[in-house]
Specification:
By secondary structure, the protein is of the alpha+beta class. Helix content is about 30%, strand content about 35%.
Length: about 170
């Protein structure tokens, strides 16, 4: 089980930097071109202070350990919401925690925030993440071929969308 809480730079910043890893590729996989390599305290401070984004930490309920992170860009007045900067701690991968975190996120976005849809971007080579998003109902609506170059290699991204479930269909008469 996963519980979401607000991201706290002092509490979570060092872990987030460690999860990104020691390469520009790790940083770009996590955050696209939002940050410059290497990720430092000043950049994370600016990110933490950005009022346009809601930043969350995912906590494994049984242990109290912070195991994940994501942000939501909710436009003023509601509307399509951007899911970004999704990360699971390397030591927590392969245990179903990403699925648990994203399931809780989708519930929160659609039930509590009442957003009409969620969008995200994922690089095509990030197959585990891509398959997880697809299993949760996200569908590709745009392909961004060779949208960024990392270490001399062009990367392609998929833009994906998940629409909030509509009202239940009425039961058939009879």
């Amino acid at each position: 089980m996963i519980t979401l809480r607000d991201f706290d730079l002092a509490r979570d910043g060092a872990a987030l930097r460690a999860w990104v890893g020691a390469s520009r590729a790790g940083l770009v996989t996590w955050a696209g071109t939002t940050f410059d390599w290497p990720l430092d305290d000043a950049q994370l401070g600016g990110y933490a202070a950005d009022a346009r984004l809601r930043k969350f930490a995912a906590v494994e309920t049984a242990t109290g350990t912070t195991v994940g992170h994501f942000s939501l860009g909710v436009p003023p007045g509601g509307g399509e919401t951007r899911l970004g900067r999704v990360m699971i701690a390397p030591e927590a991968r392969g245990r179903g925690l990403a699925r648990a975190m994203l399931t809780e996120l989708v519930r929160y976005a659609f039930q509590d925030l009442r957003v009409p849809s969620l969008t995200l971007g994922v690089f095509t080579h990030n197959t585990r993440a891509r398959h997880l998003y697809e299993s949760l109902g996200f569908r590709t609506h745009q392909v961004l071929a060779d949208c960024v170059e990392v270490d001399g290699t062009p990367w392609t991204a998929l833009e994906m969308r998940l629409t909030a479930p509509g009202p239940a269909a009425p039961a058939p008469a009879g």
